[in-house]
Amino acid sequence: MLEEHNWIQSDKEYFGKPDTMYCFKKVDPTTMHGTLDDMKAEAEDLKRKVNFKVDLMFEKTEKWHKELLKKREITSGNKTSLEEAIKILDKEKNNDVMKTVKEVNRHFNGIFSVLLPGCEARLENVFSNMKGKEGEEVAE
Predict the structure, then answer these.
(1) d(C-alpha 86, C-alpha 44), whole Å
(2) Strand partners of residue 125
(3) Can you give the pLDDT at residue 131?
């Protein structure tokens, strides 16, 4: 019996001591057998009523939920790195646009000075809040 139930060895010191769950002086064994039989019958009845598939579905759903949380964490990290990459690319794009505008101004001014000596032409930013993105127009 000791091999079958490991808890007996660890709780042996409490057997027969008052005010413990192993004090059997206050307990009538025949009453306890009746209670045990009632509890077994109730357990059997509950087994018929409980849907065990629900427990399996719960475990499956819980596993799926944990996987989704991991994926959400990964996605959040990817989102942050993508937003930073977009900011860097926007800065590079704006720098390239400004370089292009300066180069176009230089060529534009050269063409106008050949066609109309003493005149200048350049692109100017019409909308200062757009910071060189849009709104370029020709000024003479």
Answers:
(1) 63
(2) 136
(3) 52
Residue 6 lies in a domain: no
Domain assignment present for residue 7? The answer is: no
Integer Cα distance of 102 and 138 in angstroms: 13
Cα 44 from chain centre = 42
Domains: count for the chain: 1
Is there a domain that residue 10 lies in? Answer: no
Q: Which residues contact 8 (CB under 8 A, 6 or more apart)?
A: 1, 2
Nearest 5°: phi and psi at 53? -65, -30
> pLDDT, tens digit, for every residue of 84-101?
999 999 999 989 988 988
Instruction: Report if residue 1 sits inside a domain.
Output: no
Check whether 136 has a pLDDT greater than 60. no
C-beta of residue 44 within 8 angstroms of C-beta of residue 50: no
Question: pTM for the whole thing?
Answer: 0.43
Q: Taking the CA atoms of 10, 11, 13 and 15 in sequence, report the sign of the dihedral they define.
A: negative
- Domain interval for residue 49: 23-139
Task: Give the rounded distance of the alpha carbon of 75 from its chain centre.
Answer: 7
Cβ pair 123, 101 in contact under 8 A:
yes
Task: Using the predicted structure, report yes or no on whether residue 11 has a pLDDT greater than 80.
Answer: yes
